[in-house]
Every structure is written in C-alpha cells, then in structure tokens.
Amino acid sequence: MRCARPATRTDVGARRSRALLAATSALALASSCGLVREGSEPGLPECPSYEATVAPVLENQCGACHVKQAKGGYSVASWLDVMQRSAAGSFRVVSGDPSSAFLLAVRGESAPHVALDPSRAALLSDWVVRCGAEPRLGDPSEPKFHASGWASPSDAVQFHGLTLRDAGFDTADCRTCHGDDLRGGKSKTDCNVCHLKGPFDCGTCHGSASSAAPPKALDGSSLTTALGVGAHQKHLVASATHKAFDCVSCHPPVKNFDDDDHLYRGGVFDASRVAKVVLTAAPDAGVSPSWDRATATCTNVGCHTPNPNDTAAKHPSPTWTKVDQDEAKCGNCHGLPPSTHADDRCELCHDPGYADGGVNLALHLNGVVDLRGNAQCDACHAGPQSPQFRDLHGNTDPKVRTVGAHQAHLFASKYRGPMGCEACHLVPATVTSPGHIDSPPPADVFVSKPADGGLAWVGGAQPAYASATATCTNVACHGAGLLAQDSASWLTRAPVWNGPSSQVSCGTCHSLPPIDARPEHDGGTVLGCTACHGRSIDAAGRLVFHTDDAGVRTTEHLDGLVTGN
Predict the structure, then answer these.
(1) Going by C-beta distance under 8 Å and a sequence separation of 6 or more, which residues neighbour residue 106?
(2) Residue pair 47/134 in contact by the 8 Å Cβ criterion
(3) Distances in whole angstroms, Cα of residue 179 to Cα of each of 69, 247, 422, 443
(4) pLDDT tens digits, 144-195
(5) Distance CA 455, CA 561 (A)
(6) Measuring CA to CA, how many Å separate 431 from each of 115, 308, 364, 456, 482?
(7) pTM of the predicted protein model
(8) For residue range 449-478, what is the model confidence (pLDDT) as tens digits?
(9) Which residues contact 385 (CB under 8 A, 6 or more apart)?
(10) Are strands 358-359 and 354-355 parallel, antiparallel or unpaired?
(11) In this structure, are strands 464-466 and 358-359 parallel, antiparallel, or unpaired?
C-alpha cells in the first residue's frame, strides 16, 4: 500500500522520473500510510507553515497593494492566491527558484517594489527555494508523506498535478490514503482544502470556480490571445447580439472528467490535451463547419455563417483569439441586409427577433429564421389565408398605397370570388425565390404572364401598373382584353389602386350592356343579361354566387370566360 504513485510513466522526462522514484520508493514498500518523510534535510530547520509564518509577513508587508487591492491582477490574501499564475500563464512563485518574479519583488529588484527587510526577505526566500512554497497547513510538526514540491504547482518535477496527468488521472493510489472521496481518509488530509469544489471539478484544470470555461486555460494563461482562452467567455456570457451559450454548443457533452471525448479517446488517455471541437452549420446551409487550430479560425459555423451564399457578410470566419476586435459585430455574420435581401428594414419580417434596432436574445442565433407569423406568406404580409390584408408595416387602411385594394381582390366581394396573388404577382415558391425579397420595394406587379394564362391577361390584355401614380391600366378585369371593344366613355379603365371604392361598380368595367356593335347588346338593359349569361347573372340583374368544392363562395363573373347559357 502506498500514498504516492510509483514513477513508472512513459511520457515524462528522466529527471522527473528519477526524482519521483526517489521520493516514493520507500512508500511503495510500506504497508500503510504511517511512513513519514521528514520535511527538511537533517540539520536544517523545519519548513515554515504558510498560515502561521508566511501569511502574516505577506499581509503586513504586501497587503496594502495585494490584499486590500489586487494591483497587477495579483493577490496574496491566501496561499491559493499567492500561487496564481500571471495572465500569460507564467508562475510568479516558482518552487526552488530564487529568481522567480515573487522573490524579485521581495528583494526590490522589480519596479515599483521596495525590498523587504533582510529577515523577512530571507524567510520568504527560504519558503520558496528550500521548502518549495508549500502550504504546510496546520501544525508544522505533523508528519509529511510526499516529496517537497508535491503541493507546489510551479514545481515541474514533484507537483502532484503533473504526476496525476502523466498517469492518465488514475487516482487509485491517492484514494488509498485520502479515501475514496479524497476528503481525508487515513491521511486526514482533505483534497478539497485546495480544490474547493473537488479535485475533478471543471474549474480545477480550466476555468474557475464560477465558470468551467477558460480563463484559465490548461497552461494557466488568462490572456484572450492564448489559444486555450480566446473567446470562451464571450460565448458563455450574454452580449448585445447573443444569449449565453453552453459548452456543448462547441464541445461534446461531459458529465464526468473521465468521459470519452474529454480526457480519453476511445478509452485511451489523450496526452495531447487538445479539446475536441464539435461544430454545426446552419440548417440546410449545404456546408460543413470546421475549426482550424493552426489559424484559430471557425468556418461555416451556423452562428457566424448563417448563409454561406451571403456575399454581403463582412467576416463570416472569425478568429478565435481576436477578442474585442469586432470579430462578431452586426454585419459580420450576415449582411445588413444580406445579399439575398433588397430591403434593409429587418423589423418588417423579423420583428420577433429584431425590433427597435436591437435583437431578441431568446431568438437571435437560435438556428431558426424567426418570422412574424407561422405561414410562409403571412409571416411578413397577409396571404390567402389571412382574414385581413396588412402591408409589411402592419397597415390595413386601403388609402395607404401598400395596402390599397388588396382586401377587395383577395377576398370574395359582391362582384366576384377571391382572387389569388398570382393574378397580379409572380408568386415565389419559397421566400428566397428570385424576384421576391431580392428585389427592392415596391413589389413587382404584372411582371410576367403566368403559365396558366392569368386572369389579368385574358383576351390579349397587356396589364401594367404605374407605381408613381398607383394606377392599373390595360387589365382584363377593368375593361381591357375581351371588354376592349366597349366604346362607352364613362368606363374606369385606369383605376387608382388606393382610390375610392366607387371606382368599381356595375357599369364601370363594361357598359350595361356593353356598347360593342353586337346586335344582341343594342338597346338592352341589365335585366336582359340573364338571357345569355344566366350562369353569371339572374333576372333581377344580380350576380349569381355559389359555393365551390372547397367551400369558398364564388361566381362565374370575372372568371376570364364569356359564359353563356
């Protein structure tokens, strides 16, 4: 039974192996944890206790700057604070090194520090150089079972963290003395004294007690220019453009430290210490996301490249280590607007996720294109299933040009049944079909004749819409095409789209009956129309409506056909 691992690791240098072997060979022969390794060389004084001897000196001599404050990002309020690395990951206190940054400051050899008096400087130097800067918590006379430097993170030979890492973090030997839960056991030394949330908490190796994500990185660095730190916190903390992401957004899920894809790959310990990155592309993007460790660059990731074909996106492949350098500002991931959009008013269609110049963090970057409604057309403007037409701004007033007579055309009126959008517009198959959102407003009207003929084009009519005057001309429904021979001067053949409803009534599209030199029309009245057009109009001069197979109220009037009896 032993309290430390034997030095039989294949991936460390001979120097560390020889040192560990010397420190543990006697322990390997012992039958319990009762074998004591003296704390100092014979004839030398016992190493000082940090709490009883070192801490009071640091608090008295350095506390004004490094306890009450943390100048330079450094505190000496506790042993754990004293042993913290610099932002670059280097150790301030290096076990056994008289020239470490900590002792240079003690001796006044690094500005702006002033040298401590010789006796205090000697004490601190002895603690670092001879005693390995170990905590020696509790009674200094208590027995010690590990080599000097075992508890010192900066000891490149003896530190127990390195020993564990080289052994694939197998703690079987540790548990022999410290108990299965590592809270004391026979040794009565609780590993949680230093590892406040447990030796295998995420923050023990990377991150901190408050966040599993770096800083710190595995090498101790806290600089965002370090590959192991980078933009971790920028992703885990909500910002003006996104919610807080979980680690699983980019890494495999980990419940236990020894899960596969964490410290192990296929059950074999991975000594490379390179985290596995798992990225996803935007749905239906048709690309494969990737992480290039050499250039610290993400490519085709759903969050930064929602549409790989968006040529207006300024920087869809951000550099991980360029934090706070506008790597993820608005316009980098998608254009403002995207190259597939002609209108830059995001709120017109995306007001659930974007409004008042900002984003809804609950919806932005959620992998879904959140539109105003559920149906494809109704998301931005009313469609065939809408009870009331509205324009992109939500207007419903027919006097507004972008609303106009939509309601009168899309829904059954006293003159005809509902008309489809295709009667006047080229209806897109999808939102991103050419000629839809890639065209600047206003919407195109009568741009192409539908394959099925199209009601507005019946009888050779050539319909047109003048957006400057909001006027329709040469539309089959309004006196062109089959009705062009009607010579009546009072017909309204160029109705204004947002004009009064009086523009359309019986006798405004054709006379009653038409004046077209047809003998059957001469001298007649509307009451006589039923003689030939009884399927459209009754003897009282009223249009005949019926319910079609889909349950829609409609009529054969204005269906593009001259319907007789």
Answers:
(1) 113, 115, 116, 120, 121, 124, 125
(2) yes
(3) 38, 31, 77, 75
(4) 678 778 888 898 888 999 988 888 888 999 999 999 999 999 988 899 988 8
(5) 9
(6) 72, 17, 19, 24, 35
(7) 0.72
(8) 877 778 899 999 999 999 999 999 999 999
(9) 375, 378
(10) antiparallel
(11) unpaired
